[in-house]
Specification:
143 residues, mainly alpha, 5 helices, elongated
Length: 143
């Protein structure tokens, strides 16, 4: 009796797996019409890919989308392009020159010399009122 329950649950799981894979198989048939023919080279290669995934315990073999990716991998190995895919052009695109700098000073002008100060010296403002500090700051930045 336990064996019958086990067989029944396995059958239910197989039906659920098949139902989950169906949209991916439909997508594979749209991308690769020859995948619908069991005797096609693509279908045979997809079976090989799936067998390898199963032997290697690849998680894609157990995932419902694995059916689609079996066909994608098999098609790639056979050099088959999906329907609607545009082949890459064989022409080499011309090299474009980098954009020219726009009125930038030379880099040497941006690098401070050894004895140069990189920050402005501000007057000592301790002991000054807010108004005096503000005036001193404005005078220092106006230089």
């Amino acid at each position: 009796e336990l064996l019958l329950q086990s067989v029944a649950s396995t059958s239910d799981q197989a039906q659920e797996q098949a139902a989950a894979e169906e949209p991916f198989l439909i997508r594979a048939a749209q991308m690769f019409p020859q995948s619908a023919q069991a005797d096609s080279a693509l279908a045979a290669k997809a079976r090989e890919v799936y067998a390898k995934w199963t032997a290697d315990k690849d998680p894609r073999a157990a995932h419902p989308s694995g059916a689609l990716y079996c066909y994608v991998d098999a098609a790639a190995e056979l050099g088959i392009q999906p329907v609607g895919a545009v082949a890459a052009p064989n022409t080499v695109t011309p090299q474009t020159s980098p954009p020219s700098p726009v009125n930038r000073p030379p880099v040497s002008a941006l690098i401070a010399g050894g004895g140069a100060r990189t920050t402005q010296r501000t007057p000592d403002t301790t002991g000054m009122s807010y108004h005096e500090r503000k005036q001193a700051h404005l005078a220092a930045t106006a230089r």
